[in-house]
Amino acid sequence: QVQLQESGPGLIKPSQPLSLTCTVSGTAITTNYFFWNWIRQTPGKGMEWMGSIDNSGSTYYTPSLETRISISRDTSKNQFILELTSVTPEDTAVYYCARSADVGGEYVYWGQGTQVTVSS
Questions:
Q1: Residues 7, 58 contacting (CB under 8 angstroms)
Q2: Is the pLDDT of residue 50 over 80?
Q3: Cα 21 to chain center, whole Å?
Q4: How far is CA 36 from the centre of its chain?
Q5: Whether 76 contacts 28, CB under 8 Å
Q6: Is 71 helix (H, G, I), strand (E, B) or coil?
Q7: Could you give the C-alpha distances from 68 to 17, 45, 65, 82, 98, in angstroms and in order?
Q8: Is 50 helix (H, G, I), strand (E, B) or coil?
């Protein structure tokens, strides 16, 4: 069974970088052909797809975050990592990782989500 688990800081200060890790079990993140996504949910904007990394390591980002976002992976740990720079209170959200068969496609497997609050 595929399982995903997010981890990272619950509270960070404005302008600091945010780093979240998604640990995957039950399948390898290098398995063809899947996309590993970061999605966030805020009260104001609802669900927002942030970006993906595919099984080959190629990355895809939503245009509004392109200058601040980076997604990488550690295949030895079966993890993929979100990094978001220059955070503001507007980045306060529940962050999810999820697997799909296409960029921004149907998410079959989800992590439970992790709350990140940006506040001084």
A1: no
A2: yes
A3: 8
A4: 8
A5: no
A6: strand
A7: 9, 18, 5, 11, 20
A8: strand
Average pLDDT of every residue of the chain: 95
Residues 79 and 73: beta-carbon distance below 8 Å: yes
Average of per-residue pLDDT across 103-113: 90
Per-residue DSSP letter, 64:
G
pLDDT greater than 90 at residue 104: no
| pLDDT, mean of residues 42-53 | 90
Q: For residue 83, what are the CA distances in angstroms to 21, 22, 101, 109?
A: 9, 12, 22, 21
Residues 6+ apart with CB under 8 A from 112: 5, 6, 96
The helix/strand/coil state of 67 is coil
10 Å CB burial of residue 59 (0-12, 13-18, 19+) is middle
- The answer to whether residue 99 scores a pLDDT higher than 90 is yes
Is residue 44 very low, low, confident or very high in pLDDT (cuts 50, 70, 90)?
confident
